[in-house]
Design a protein that fits this description.
- The chain is α+β, with helices and mostly antiparallel strands and 160 residues long.
- It has two domains: 97 residues; 56 residues, no CATH class.
- The protein has three helices and seven strands, in the order αβββαββββα.
- The strands form two sheets. The chain has a four-stranded antiparallel sheet, with no helix packed on it. Strands 1-2-3 form a three-stranded antiparallel sheet.
- Helix 1 runs antiparallel to helix 2.
- It starts with a helix and ends with a helix.
């Protein structure tokens, strides 16, 4: 999955969902009577079985803390599902692109080809090193990121 796609998914989601539970609770459900502080979370006292607000130190109803926990778990699961769906869409897109252009190869490096007899604009093209190890030539006006490898294509035709 590309970084741009992953960043798009993360931008739509709230980053605090990756925090450990009871550390950050972003919104409260209705019915909360004592503490409405946001972004503080809860501290659990397992001996006395109490939930304490990290912001103000007041006791919070344990049922309200469990509701907040359930909501955050639900959001976390749906977030994970969205990320997996986005990764699957990206894999499918790459597979479709590869099937459409089976000999398309990414460019690893670009080297300028110069004509030393020219005074202005001595670059007459580029030699591209492809991910398969072969090289290709292109004109001076563009440096492509992906090129059809003619040598891989010729090898495939020769092997059939």
């Amino acid at each position: 999955m590309t970084n741009a796609c992953l960043d798009t998914v993360k931008a739509r989601l709230r980053p605090e969902l990756n925090e450990p539970f009871f550390e950050v609770v972003n919104e409260w459900s209705g019915g909360m009577t004592r503490c409405r502080h946001r972004e503080h979370g809860f501290r659990l006292d397992t001996i006395d079985r109490r939930a304490i607000c990290k912001g103000c130190g007041k006791d919070v109803d344990a049922f309200d803390a469990l509701v907040a926990y359930a909501k955050s778990e639900t959001r976390l699961l749906s977030t994970r599902q969205r990320i997996e769906d986005a990764e699957k869409r990206e894999r499918d897109r790459k597979a479709r692109e590869k099937a459409r252009r089976p000999f398309g190869r990414a460019v690893n490096s670009v080297r300028a080809v110069k004509d030393l007899t020219l005074k202005t604009e001595p670059v007459i093209g580029y030699t591209l090193t492809l991910e398969c190890g072969h090289s290709a030539e292109c004109g001076p006006n563009r440096k492509p990121r992906m090129v059809t490898c003619r040598q891989c294509q010729a090898d495939a035709i020769a092997n059939t």
